[in-house]
Amino acid sequence: MTRQHPAQQGFTLLEILVALAIMAMAVVVVLQLFSANLQGLAASDDYVKAVIRAEAKMREILDDSDLAQRSWSEVSDDGYRIDASVSPVAGERTENLPVQLLRISLTVHWTKGVRERTLTLRTMKLVNRRV
Fold it and tell me: End-to-end alpha-carbon separation of the chain, Å?
């Protein structure tokens, strides 16, 4: 019959505590990474909603057959504020032409927590000059 030495019978309390401490640190790191991912997903979701809203409003402005120089602001039910402006561009280059070049700028503002976020879209449109 072989006898085992006392050192080979199992783990000491110190070895178990060190293993638990290492495992606890690994779990904390994994949870922090998971939390950062969730925050990133929430922020990207807000930007996607703002882009969808801005593109829809931009299409609405571009489809306007009576597009002229003006500025306006509106607030949606879900807290987005949209500031839009239409202004002439390159007037000295197009003053003798039957068309006019307009710059359209649209900015969407929303608040997430304590920070205000913004997204801006800009484009240009060629329209018939008003007589």
Answer: 113
